[in-house]
Design brief:
alpha/beta, Rossmann fold, Arc Repressor Mutant, subunit A, 14 helices, 13% strand
């Protein structure tokens, strides 16, 4: 099976951070073993960012060959360009976007990239979002859309739109969690030193990234070890050695930095692991217990009741 493509559309006057943040997420995912291929395309032979940083020549968008389930991401560009008469007449681009959607390509926008999807008519009747400064403008110009404010990103029928700038990182991590799983997305976020991964509505959090909104390196090391070695038994002295502190200090500092105890944190990780393992119909409760560092099936059943 061919690697899934992540294609970035580089428009003139593109916002560099809109591109770079999400791009780096997918690059790190590849480094961790995700079967992805990143490609870039544009509508011009030569473009520069909004800060006038030149970008080398990339493929023309019509040269991209998609397969069902690939992703096309449109980072934001200067609104003045996207709403200019010169861009509005790019009918070939808009038809290409509609054709990609019909081919079951997943379309995504970061920040003002939503205006491109709207110009193609792809946001008509759909929920979407954009940078907070532009939500009202987007709604006014495209009244058939349903622009949602105060969220990081939203998905509606294979079209994902995100808010401004760094929310593109949250969107990319969300995509990675769908392509792989939450644990994999956690590893990518950790590599990027993003310990609090935000969901679209910010109503849900990944257990693998909750309780990480602190900068204590010793506690991070303990959390990393527990998450990576949940199948193994761990003692407080062993964890204290990992954190380079005494057992008494570890217990105190862990609760201070995370808000929960080491035992409670370990239980949450086990629950998350159980949720993933029970999806496999061939996995017995005895096997699940071993994978989660539990002594018996009874412990698995007790934790399953709490899910």
């Amino acid at each position: 099976m061919a690697a899934k493509k992540i294609v970035f559309m580089l428009l003139p006057e593109i916002q560099l951070l809109d591109l770079a943040g999400a791009d780096q997420v997918f690059y790190e995912a590849i480094c961790y073993g995700s079967d992805l291929k990143i490609e870039y395309c544009s509508i011009e032979n030569s473009i520069s960012t909004s800060t006038l940083l030149p970008i080398g020549q990339v493929k023309r968008f019509t040269e991209i060959v998609f397969q069902e389930g690939d992703y096309l991401i449109i980072p934001g560009a200067e609104t003045s360009y996207l709403l200019s008469d010169g861009f509005r007449v790019k009918k070939e681009l808009f038809e290409w976007l509609k054709m990609a959607y019909m081919q079951k390509i997943i379309l995504c926008s970061i920040c003002t990239g939503a205006f491109v999807l709207a110009l193609a008519g792809l946001l008509d009747g759909r929920k979407c979002t954009t940078h907070w400064k532009r939500t009202a403008h987007l709604q006014t110009l495209f009244p058939k859309t349903e622009v949602v404010e105060n969220i990081l990103f939203i998905e509606d029928e294979r079209i994902l739109t995100s808010a401004g700038v760094t929310s593109g990182i949250d969107l990319a991590l969300h995509i990675i969690s769908k392509l792989e799983d939450d644990a994999f997305a956690y590893k990518v976020a950790r590599e990027l030193v993003i310990y609090m991964r935000r969901q679209g509505t910010h109503a849900q959090q990944s257990i693998f990234l909750q309780y990480r909104n602190h900068i204590h390196s010793g506690i991070h090391k303990v959390q990393d070890w527990l998450q990576d070695n949940i199948s193994q038994k761990s003692s407080l002295p062993e964890l204290a050695e990992i954190a380079c502190m005494s057992t008494r200090n570890l217990t105190r500092v862990f609760k201070k930095e995370t808000g929960i105890s080491i035992n409670d944190f370990t239980t949450l990780i086990r629950k998350e692991k159980i949720k993933a393992l029970v999806k496999n119909p061939d996995m017995t409760q005895s096997q699940i217990a071993r994978h989660c560092g539990l002594k018996s099936e009874r412990q698995v059943i007790r934790l399953m009741k709490q899910l």
